[in-house]
Amino acid sequence: MAGLEDLYREIILDHYRSPRNRGELATPPAVRIEGFNPLCGDEIVLYLEVTDGVVSDVKISGQGCSISQSSASMMSAAIKGKDVGEVRALIRSFKAMMSIPESGHEHDDGPVEEIGPIDPETFGELAALQGVVKFPVRIKCATLSWNTLVQALDEAAAN
Amino acid sequence: MAIKQSEYDVTKIKSDFPLLDRVQDGNKIVFLDSAASSQRPYSVLEAMDDYYKTTHANVHRGVYAIAEEATRRYEEGRLAAGRLINAPDPAREIILTKNVTEAYNLVAYTWGRANLHDGAVIVLTESEHHANIVPWLMLKQERDITIRYIPIGDDFRLDLSNLDEMVKGAKFVSVTGASNVLGTITDLEPIVKAAHRAGALVMADGAQLVPHRPVDVQALDLDLFGYTGHKLLGPTGIGVLWARAAILEEMPPFLGGGEMINDVRLDGFTTNELPWKFEAGTPPIAESVGLGAAIRYLEEIGLEKIAAHEAELTNYALDSLCEHFPEIEIFGPGARTERRGGVISFRFGDIHPHDVSQVLDQHGVCVRAGHHCAKPLMRRLGVNATTRVSLYLYNDEHDVDVLIEALTAVKKMFA
């Protein structure tokens, strides 16, 4: 059995205790998307503002466990100021780290390594979430905000 | 009320359950999630194993000794299921289903479609499991029916102050016998009386009740009742629906196929007699054998004694939790209150139930974290999820002490 220190890394607990980018944004110009984890009842509300192809602002509200909240907090810090193409690449890399091809079906897109290797330079603090893979039930907690982000990007693009 | 320790040997009972011997990372398992599914004693495992080794054949078909014996053993499970709740005519009135969820779907699909037309009213409660909400909501998607919900009060009990008004004009009232979240045990008597005065049938959900205390459907004057095998030491894959024979006779069949028919022609069919009318296809035979063995095990110990043991242990757990953790918020009645079962749901300060449960697991302590298939109730309580400890006949004070130690570790980690 994997040890708890693999899951609850100090940086994760830090984001959980002091979440970044908490709050709301005016809609429009931002889009607002709700994400739910039916397993645990966690919910996240993501506000995303895209200006000229760049994530100009992001805010997060809702409630959940330390893994879902810290993942959302780290995600918000990682995507703010990045262009949409970079953000989508980051989503692919994050899901690969969680052993999930972006389609959501495992093992149907060839080896996950090809989807996007973990680059410590761009991944930064997010690499701390790697230990979640050893706790399969918690993967959904870690990916909740990222799935919500995909929906938000799609909606922002459609507007 | 209190029983002497000598009359109830929890150490002996614990030793009947092989899974409770499991050691995980050096910690013996402390299983506090029996409200989700209980563990099984050797006698249940052996009965099912013996059935498969010596007696398996399909039931109600073969004209050979093994098939007849398999049929007898399958039907014995049904009779035990009826005896446990004092059903008047178990051979006809006990329908064996996959689980209690299927029992509810069966009732909503057949009785509901035959009796609930546009404008009909049914009454549920705010503390129902999804199994007693969603089948009715599915019917409501097709028909213009009204669902009223008996609210829960600030004491976590059903608010029965407006009962007559609530059931007025209703055709069906369906309530939980014991909440899987709050630990409350429903005072069924006034609900049944009011419903019958209003001309409604009453169904109670015994999933969390039957495993823990004696239940008598005749004394309660119920019309329909459901419970499940895997929460009372039996196997998964078998549930029980009881209803008065007159009600079952009037209900159209549920699933179609073999066994449930009397005759089939290319342009029609007639249905079998009760109870097989509602049991299409090869039924859960070994599971019925296992259910019968589980019921015998419970009867040998005695449900009165089990209830008394659980009441004492629940008081000990509630006292210990409140004493050690002032920040704990328990969603349910306090210690030493009437009609209080061994389910304890709580909020542990600001620490999310998933995190609580994850750290407890590291200490071998198994609890449930989540919405417990009761999202409307969670909304009413104003939470997304709770941590739930549930106690059963094999739990003891040591289990509670390990829980307290493990919760102390949770607190330290997330402080």
Topology of this protein?
The complex is a heterodimer of chains A (159) and B (415).
Chain A: H1 4-7, H2 10-17, E1 31-37, E2 42-51, E3 54-63, H3 66-79, H4 84-97, H5 120-123, H6 136-158
Antiparallel strand pairs in A: 1-2, 2-3
Helix pairs in contact in A: 2-3, 3-6, 4-6
Chain B: H1 10-15, E1 23-24, E2 27-28, E3 30-31, H2 42-54, H3 65-84, H4 90-93, E4 94-97, H5 100-115, E5 121-125, H6 134-142, E6 146-150, H7 163-167, E7 172-176, H8 188-197, E8 201-205, E9 224-228, E10 239-243, H9 245-250, E11 261-265, E12 268-271, H10 285-301, H11 303-324, E13 328-330, E14 343-348, H12 353-362, E15 365-366, E16 368-370, H13 375-381, E17 386-390, H14 397-414
Helix pairs in contact in B: 2-10, 3-10, 11-14, 12-14
Short structural summary:
The complex is a heterodimer of chains A (about 160) and B (about 425). Chain A has about 160 residues and is an alpha+beta fold. Helices cover about 40% and strands about 15% of the residues of chain A.
